[in-house]
Give the backbone structure.
Amino acid sequence: MITVQNLRQSNLSLPPLTHQRVQELKQTPKGQRIMQEAFQAFPDLIKSLTNALQEKLDQYSSTRTLGADFSEGPTLETLVEEYQFLEFVQFVMFLKFKDEKNKEASGHTPGSLQANRA
């Protein structure tokens, strides 16, 4: 089984998830759907994306091991893109987690602000 750790050890440089890249990913249709997801959906979403990436990594590894035609399986660029998108989803989950905690701490939900009556 090939993992992201194996990719890192194979001298593959995984690009960092920069602010600019986050903004680019937010603009994609997939990124826009992710931004609309409720916080509660993220653990399952991350698990699903992780499993899908692992399957593609396994397929890529098998293709390389067997010397098969690379045009049929995922490319290295596709794997890097999928990995970076997974990092993006984890980043968005963190932001939504912070928002949830801030809501709990402030005791209100968006749209329920009331003027203080003195």
